[in-house]
Amino acid sequence: MKFADLHLHTQFSDGTFTPEELVERAHKLEFAAIALTDHDTVEGCARAAAACAAVGIDFIPGSELTAEHADTEVHIIGYLLDTENKTLLEKISVFQAQRQNRIYEMCAALNQAGIPLKAEAVFALANCKSPGRPHVARTLVKEKLIGNLDEAFEKYLKKGRVAWVPKTKMSALESIALIHQAGGVAVMAHPGLNRSDEIIPALVEAGLDGIECFHTKHSTVMAERYLMIAEKHGLLVTGGSDCHGFSKIKPLIGTVKLPYEHVEKLKAKAAERNAKSAGWKK
Ligand code: AMP
Ligand code: ZN
Ligand code: FE
Ligand code: FE
Predict the structure, then answer these.
(1) DSSP state at residue 168
(2) Which of 159, 189, 207, 280 has the most neighbouring CB atoms within 10 Å?
(3) CB 167 less than 6 A from any atom of ligand 1
């Protein structure tokens, strides 16, 4: 049997591995295919693709876009998109700039609360265009302003706490269109985490192609429910560990193994979409 992990993060967003370290782990775990799905960026894809090619792993470029629909945060993953697509890059650069502004806002709120954390220290640690709360938490730990990551979230960063700053999100419908115009396949990530089943029909209506049924935080019962929903709407099935490296005690890569047939279906969908759009252009 061949397996894939289609949900992975690196240092290009809030993971701790470089693309090369991630691919090395995937290779040791004998994955046949992996996807890189860093938040609001595609920057790591070129390096991950090169590392995968060197060890014979099938690489799927991707990005996990932060979006919202009906006041619910949803993550829409674009797979097999053109990582040099101009419209995609322009749009995600706006969200990256907003993520960077948010770091200043979170640090200002922490300073107000008497915690002397400098945004520059967070940027130095994050060293990426898509910084987020995990980088603030890690910097707080590094500067010994808090004991550990969980405490940082619990005390300062989670919703409603002093340094919580909401993220500006694109509409989920727009994110699906953005992925499609870049030649990609749009998949709803971890629906079980957002308790957002009621918005699925609207996303399907907007062209959603798939749903992440298998995820570290989905129970078996949840996975079965989403498999049924996928079947009902004729959606692709995906899955992945959502590994962020050592942000957890143990990296999650290897805990979710998606049968390779789903990768083939994903590729067929992208090929079908691109054949259609090529037809339109003629
Ligand atoms: P952001 O996109 O900046 O809002 O940050 C979201 C990230 O923070 C996600 O990748 C989560 O894995 C991580 N996160 C959220 N809550 C916690 C928590 N309590 N402990 C550790 N990480 C968390
Ligand atoms: Zn993340
Ligand atoms: Fe997510
Ligand atoms: Fe993720």
Answers:
(1) P
(2) 189
(3) yes
Q: How much is the pTM?
A: 0.95
Which atom number of ligand 1 is nearest to the Cα of residue 132? 3
User: What is the CATH number that goes with domain 3-91+168-281?
Assistant: 3.20.20.140
Among 8, 9, 10, 14, which is best to mutate for testing ligand 1, by the most ligand atoms less than 8 A from CB?
14
Which sequence spans correspond to the domains of the chain?
3-91+168-281, 93-157
What digits encode the pLDDT tens for the residues 161-197? 999 999 989 999 999 999 999 999 999 999 999 878 9
- CATH number assigned to the domain with residue range 93-157, chosen from the 4 options 3.20.20, 1.10.287, 3.30.70, 1.10.150: 1.10.150
Task: Tell which one of 12, 133, 215 to mutate to probe ligand 1, the residue whose CB is within 8 A of the most ligand atoms.
Answer: 133
Residue-wise pLDDT for 114-156, tens only, equals: 999 999 999 999 999 999 999 999 999 999 999 999 999 999 9
Structural tokens at position 116:
């002397």
Our CA dihedral for 125, 127, 133, 134, rounded to 10 degrees, sits at: -60
pLDDT digits (tens, 9 = 90+) for 223-271: 999 999 999 999 999 999 999 999 877 999 999 999 999 999 999 999 9
Q: Which two tokens stand for residue 139?
A: 């910097």
**133, 153 contact by CB (below 8 A):** yes
- Cβ 218 vs Cβ 190: under 8 Å: yes
